[in-house]
Amino acid sequence: MNFALFIGCKIPRHLKHYETSARAVLERLGVSVTEIPAFNCCGYPMRNGDFDTFVLLSARNLAIAEKRGLNIMTLCKCCFGSLKKVNHLLRTEAALRERINKILGKEGLSYEGRTEVTHFLSVLRRDVGLETIGERISLSYKGLKIATHYGCHALRPSDVMNFDDPVSPSLFDELVEVTGARSVEWPLRLECCGAPLMGINDKLSVDLMKRKLQTARESGADYLCVSCPWCQVQFDLAQAALNGEVPKVPSLLFSQLLGKVMGIDDGTLGIKENRLDISGIQGYLSQEKA
């Protein structure tokens, strides 16, 4: 099982530990990843500004992976959404595909639609499977309550993403619960974290985040758990700047949550790299497996 690992732009700048923790987890599970330095931005920042540039940027990444005979795995939900959307558009719109291929041809690339795009969580749940993950776990959480945050781009549009049920998803919850933690029900789990609005409408961005934090806390969650760098920056860096305006609910990456029960060291998982302290999860660890 081998994928072209698409890191994107946000992770190297803000969350290098997401990459190191995800790589460590994947290695323990026997999933190989190939790094392709030629990859460029997924195009997400241009999506609503210059549509052709957005398509071209994603198409180039797809064509590069296709030339290597690899499917793409992303760690970022925005990258996942962008690459999946463009893959769908180019497969279904011949005129757009022809126009983009004329440009790609200038550097010896061509998009033929043979590469699939998946996300880190999908690989864990569908390609690896809960049983195999359970076999690689040496510890278990006891009494830990987690609020899963699915993120917007993985679920919608559902006919393109094919990630999970857009109204009642369970994939992320199942992955959390294989660690022994309990995934709590909370009313705003599918709502936007507010990150895309930061820098455009900061007040609305913060208000969306505060509402989510409040309902997560009211639902009894000890921590939020995410699998997207945009969401993690919002719930970690931006939440840390709220200065006690709402009860804090620290956020951790799923690769950190899973890595702990797999026995991966804190340095590799970047436990101390989070702005809000998440070291308390150590106290929930048990030698008894779930």
Characterization of this structure:
This protein is α/β, with parallel strands linked by helices. It contains 13 helices and ten strands. It has helices at 10-14, 16-28, 51-67, 77-92, 94-104, 120-128, 130-136, 158-161, 171-177, 202-218, 229-240, 254-261, 266-269, and strands at residues 2-6, 32-35, 71-74, 117-119, 140-141, 145-148, 182-183, 223-226, 251-253, 285-286. The chain has a four-stranded parallel beta sheet with strand order 2-1-3-4, with helices on both faces. The longest helix is centred in the N-terminal third of the chain and has 17 residues, at 51-67. The model has no long low-confidence stretch (mean pLDDT 95).
Characterize the overall form: globular
Secondary-structure element pattern, one letter each = EHHEHEHHEHHEEHHEHEHEHHE
Give the CATH level 1 class of the largest domain.
Alpha Beta
Radius of gyration computed on alpha carbons: 19 Å
The tally of domains stands at 2
The CATH architecture of the largest domain can be named as 3-Layer(aba) Sandwich
**Whole-number mean pLDDT:** 95
Strand content: 5-15%
Largest sheet: 4 strands, parallel
Q: Helix amount, in percent?
A: 40-55%
Runs with pLDDT <50, length 5+? none
Per DSSP, the total helix count is 13
**End-to-end separation:** 27 Å
The class by helix and strand makeup works out as: alpha/beta
Compute the number of strand runs. 10
State the CATH topology of the largest domain: Rossmann fold
Strand order of the largest sheet: 2-1-3-4
